[in-house]
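[stage:ingest] chain + small molecule (aspartic acid)
[stage:ingest] validated
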Amino acid sequence: MKVAKFGGSSVSNAKQIKKVLKIVNEDPERKIIIVSAPGKRSKDDIKTTDLLIRLYEKAINNIDYQHKKQEIIQRYADIVDELDMDRDILDTIDHTLEHYIHELKDKPSRLYDAIVSCGEDFNAQLIATYNNSQGIPTRYISPKEAGIWVTDLPKQAQILDSSYEQIYKLNDYKEKLIIPGFFGVSKHNFIVTFPRGGSDITGAIIARGVRASLYENFTDVSGIYKANPNIIKDPEIIEEITYREMRELSYAGFSVFHDEALQPLHKDRIPVVIKNTNRPEDKGTYILHDREINSKNVISGISCDKDFTVINIKKYLMNRQVGFTRKVLGVFEDYNISFDHMPSGIDNISIVMRSNQIKNIESRVLNDIQKHCDVDELSIDHDLAILMIVGEGMNRVVGTASKITHALAESNINLKMINQGASEISMMFGIKVEDAEKAVRSTYEFCYHGVCIKE
Ligand code: ASP
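[stage:predict] done
[stage:export] tokens:
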């Protein structure tokens, strides 16, 4: 049995919903469907989830929210009318939003999650009702009914392991099941959402819970590109990629598939395919436990993300001081900062983190390092982008690093930092933010096409 998830653009209007249901109904193995909230219908459109966030902001600040609420109802009214459906569901939408606003006004973070979850919840109800009316037995299942029990931290739900037993029972239904993505329910009976883009996570949880043979993740591209299409014109699509490679790429900017969605899948090795709702015949990209390596697919993808900050510390004879790094990291712990990389030399260490981790507390962190660690030199650099070259094949093929550094040198890009973990699955290069796009272009062209971009 397959679990199929459809992203926001796939369910943004009646025409898209019909496409989705055609895909769903023509394959009897597609039994469980996860849907997002209606996404953008055009480039300048606003996602329903973002409209719901605006509604929340008005309601919580005691500003008249009726207009915003109507705007949201209208999004669904457009779909309902075009599908020629009964308008009753629009009253349910109105009442549900009012109910949450009145019940949860004193609990802002609970209200936020409840309102924001409505985008997927209404859409799932609507799509299930419509498919049923077309003569295909279909049932809406709420996350609570499905057994998606989660931790109680607003906006950051995590599945409770005990949920999987109940989720397995979804196998017993004979109808097609439509489940809203993006949220679960806590043991205190609050709606709790996953991080943004979290419908992928719901799909992964359900796929694992029912032991699906395949998790199909439908979106608006025909797979995962080898590099950012905003930088490379028509990049090639990856045919197969492992869970570990995908995790590394999505960490540094590949946003087609939520990185938290990989966790439930890799344990039970459930394969994922990223497919295009608008071109379902395209093969898509498979995310698997293992893949065959050949000379052409040593590197699976190249990504680059900006917004990193690095703190550089120098301490003469650092390598002989027991406990020095522990003291430094203790300061990070005191400020609840998580870091991403920590390249080091014999007398120096650099700590790389997302810039938002240290925003507004920078001078206090630096002061504390100075005070507790007796360092010789301390500096901070905000101008850091991270280029990640990812590929399982790198630990079997000699010479990949040389290719990459050659391409970067020919393009006159200075490498501030180089790091490769023991798993040899990725190579990380710290470069100047202004070199980010150039670095992707030069490594992509050289590694995939042997073309050197000289500067
Ligand atoms: N609708 C939610 C969002 O926009 C979740 C999702 O679409 O995956 O983040």
